[in-house]
Amino acid sequence: MKEGTLETVEIRGRGRIVSFTQVMRGLPGYDSPYILACIELDGGPSLIAQLEGWQGATVKTHMPVELVIGRIKQEKNGTVVIGPKFKPVAE
Amino acid sequence: MTKVYVIGVAMSMFGPYPEVEVHDLGQEAAWKAIKSSGVDPRKLEVCFAGHAYQGPCFGQKILVKLGLTGMPIFNVENACASGSTAILGVYSMIQAGRADLGIAIGGEKLTTPSGGFLPIVADDLDSSSGRVMPAAFAMIARRHMEKYGTTAEQVAKVAVKNRKNVCLNLNVSEKYRTKVTLEEVLHSPVIADPLTRLSCCPVSDGAAAVVLASEKVARQYTNKPVEIVASVLNSGKRTKYGLIDYESEISIRAAKEAYERAGIGPEDIDVCELHDPFTIAEIVHYEDLGFCKPGEGGRYIDEGMSEIHGKGVAVSPSGGLLGRGHPLGATGIAQVSELFWQIRGEAGERQVPNAKVGLAHVVGGGVTNLESGACSVHILKM
């Protein structure tokens, strides 16, 4: 066990879509509309992240996705915030 | 341990009041609740004040307007469950014998946030990724629809019912007392598919307050005290899919504990105020609270079971969060106020026939890796 926590989990960058929605109007700074999804990572935990490269694709639950680092939002001062996103991949 | 009773309740008006200061709303609710209890305000021994974004010394800033100073005041924050947490605080102090009379106040100003909501985005990973609450509930809706075949029409019927009920609630701004049709709900602008604008609660300001009393003194003030037979608060676990699921583990767990403490079951509940910030939440919580089996929430609304004059549990006769809006700290206390009126037969046109036992449920707070921040269930009966 790592000091300072009861639980650590090792993750890889692949997973599947548990659920998703197209957000038509997000908070200021986000590139609305965007697709937000709950991703179950292979090997355990789930997280919520935006999809990348979904335009033109048919997003479905159970679809496999892969971690990418991409633009999440832009702050008022112009700073672009990057973070974990997922892109649909072939089975 | 002494039994604890509700002896007075009140709400300020709920609605968009951008020009009114939040502590003035709190003053209105607290003063009316004290008046309705018949208690001399100077006899109050303890106050818990719930809010999420209103800054330091929230309770003090309200009570000083009433001329009440010096008593112990606990300011509590638990996102959507802040008000309920305040009730549990006063309840616990009375139960422990530290006080015979106390007041729980909750309030929130949402129409003029002045940037107050941004911290929740900055310090939480899911929120930073763009997980606004309508998106979370939209994903819950998709889960429930795929798992159980729940339809968009069934989900939309919750908004039709609750916006019909709120028309009978004079504590809510006239601006929000408008009936809507199923077609209007389904075809209002999409916020996060499948949820439309009318599937979301409106933005409201408001405050509410309840006066609680020990068994020793309650009947000095009223011959109709309403007993709190269960007051439960818990916090979220790291469930498999967090908030995004077709059931709410935190709600199931809180309800189970509340039923055990009260020594009753869901079949004994006549009236319920549950946490319905978005339509789908009500369907999921019918199941979580045991009013119907998992997967039957859509049918429950289809068959009119949860209507004021329905055959099941009357759910959100006040209009719920969808009707009156959701000023975070005020909601849990407004729910208990509604149950108090319902159980005493004082709910006017929205009175649920023979309402004897009521349940209030709130859940909220977005924390990455947890299903939710906190959940509270209260059960009241005469």
Helix/strand layout:
The complex is a heterodimer of chains A (about 90) and B (about 375).
Chain A: E1 14-23, E2 34-41, E3 46-51, E4 64-74, E5 80-88
Parallel strand pairs in A: 3-5
Antiparallel strand pairs in A: 1-2, 1-4, 2-3, 4-5
Chain B: E1 4-11, H1 22-37, E2 46-50, H2 58-63, E3 73-76, H3 82-95, E4 101-108, H4 118-122, H5 125-128, H6 133-148, H7 152-165, H8 182-187, E5 190-192, E6 195-196, E7 206-214, H9 215-221, E8 226-235, H10 249-262, E9 271-273, H11 279-288, H12 297-302, E10 314-315, H13 320-324, H14 328-343, E11 357-364, E12 374-381
Parallel strand pairs in B: 2-3, 2-4, 9-10, 9-11
Antiparallel strand pairs in B: 1-7, 1-8, 4-7, 5-6, 8-12, 11-12
Q: Could you please describe the fold and organization of this structure?
A:
- Chain A is mainly β and 91 residues long.
- Chain A has one domain (16-88).
- Chain A is built from no helices and 5 strands.
- In chain A, a hairpin with a 5-residue loop joins strand 4 (64-74) and strand 5 (80-88).
- The model of chain A has no long low-confidence stretch (mean pLDDT 91).
- Chain B has a single domain (4-115, 202-381), classed as Peroxisomal Thiolase, Chain A, domain 1 (3-Layer(aba) Sandwich), CATH 3.40.47.10.
- In chain B, helix 3 crosses helix 14 and helix 7 (152-165) crosses helix 11.
- Treating each run of at least 4 consecutive H or I residues as one helix, how many helices of chain A? 0
Bulk shape of chain B: globular
> What structural class do the secondary elements of chain A suggest?
mainly beta
Low-confidence stretches of chain A: none
CATH class of chain B: Alpha Beta
SSE topology string of chain B: EHEHEHEHHHHHEEEHEHEHHEHHEE
Distance between the termini of chain A: 34 Å
Considering the protein shown, what is the CATH homologous superfamily of chain B? Thiolase/Chalcone synthase
- Rounded radius of gyration of chain A (Å): 15 Å
User: CATH topology of chain B, which one?
Assistant: Peroxisomal Thiolase, Chain A, domain 1
> Can you write the helix and strand succession of chain A as a string?
EEEEE
Q: What is the residue-averaged pLDDT of chain A? A: 91
- Count of separate DSSP helical elements of chain B: 14
Q: Please, what is the oligomeric state? A: heterodimer
Major beta sheet summary of chain B: 10 strands, mixed
Class from helix and strand fractions of chain B? alpha/beta
Number of domains of chain B: 1
Strand order of the main beta sheet of chain A, please?
Answer: 1-2-3-5-4
Cα-based radius of gyration of chain B, to the nearest Å? 19 Å
